[in-house]
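Hey,

Quick one before I head out. I ran the complex with pyridoxal-5'-phosphate overnight. Inputs first:
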Amino acid sequence: MNQEQDWNKLATETKVVAAGRPEKKPDGALNPPIALNSTFHEGGPIGYARYGNETWSALEDAISILEGGKSLIFSSGMGAISCVISLLPEASVIVAAHNGYQGTTTMLKKMHEDKRLEVRFVDLANTEAVLAAIPGAKMLYLESPTNPGIEVVDLPTVIAAGKVAHCVVVVDNTLATPMIQNPLALGADITLHSVTKYLSGHSDLLLGSISTKENALYGRLEQARRYSGSIAGPFEAWLALRGLRTFALRMQRSQENALELANRLVKDPRVLKVRYPGLVTDPYHERAKSFMKGFGAMISFEVNATTAQIDQMCDFSKLITNATSLGGVESIWERRRRWATESHTIPENLIRFSVGIESVDDLWSDIQFAFTAAKIL
Ligand SMILES: *Cc1c(COP(=O)(O)O)cnc(C)c1O
């Protein structure tokens, strides 16, 4: 779709604006259409709208340029993850997080119970534990930073070990984003996103993506999408591409806000522990600095109060929304253990905080207000 362009030379800030545009021609549009068709005249490479769509292709081109691999979009992040997992033959061994994103962990637990797969659940941040679990595994399924623990996995080391052992190495890059790390450049076979989060960035749609440099894998995943039918709506694809245009700006601002708020929360006597790799005191700070280009905009922190008070705190804030999900322009927080499916390794008093692009001082005032309103002293 795009004119000849040496994308490798360009910065992320430029790629998000320039990628995924229709071909240049007189009176040609700058933006792709919302292509609403279920079928096409015969003779072309697509044939039917479950197999391809012009608006998907524009978003896929943009994600491909950001991640450095060929991409496919899906109806949701879980749609993408399910297709990746569906590549594994019955009873295969997979290594995955014991406390990663709850949707993935819950799905894998169920598949393990049903004997569809043999899942070795490990603490991904513990490199020794990951290395010990790899022998005999067909897939190494990684996520870093983890959601909601905000623990950083030593991706260069574990990806390399997974490749030596002939595993298909998958990295969920939703929290870090291609602004901060490129798993394919670190040697992973597949990187995937909940496009619902930072890439689209406005909490108004659900989409997922996968990217890979390997043509055979791409072909198998494209087929899995065709026949699972977990395809994106053209409107959602168009909206996500529109959101992606400001992704670099949003991420920069959210990240600055997150670092400032993490530094203020650390000093607050009502806060027991702050998890943010950008803090020099964070146990993962040095590891994060060694291969990441930033620290992201997700903070988790533990509050010295009862769970009832913490629920009230999340609810009483006026700017920060008490809701699940993350990665939007608006700040959102929640007590993660309010969900029965959240891993029990996540403390009851932990708040996951997706820091938005508002004024940092307004956010800080809102946090102070919420503490006081919930009588957390
Ligand atoms: C939200 C999320 C998903 C699932 O994506 P959906 O778009 O909600 O299906 C997967 N991984 C991570 C890390 C997430 O935060």
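The chain has a mean pLDDT of 97.

Talk tomorrow,
K.
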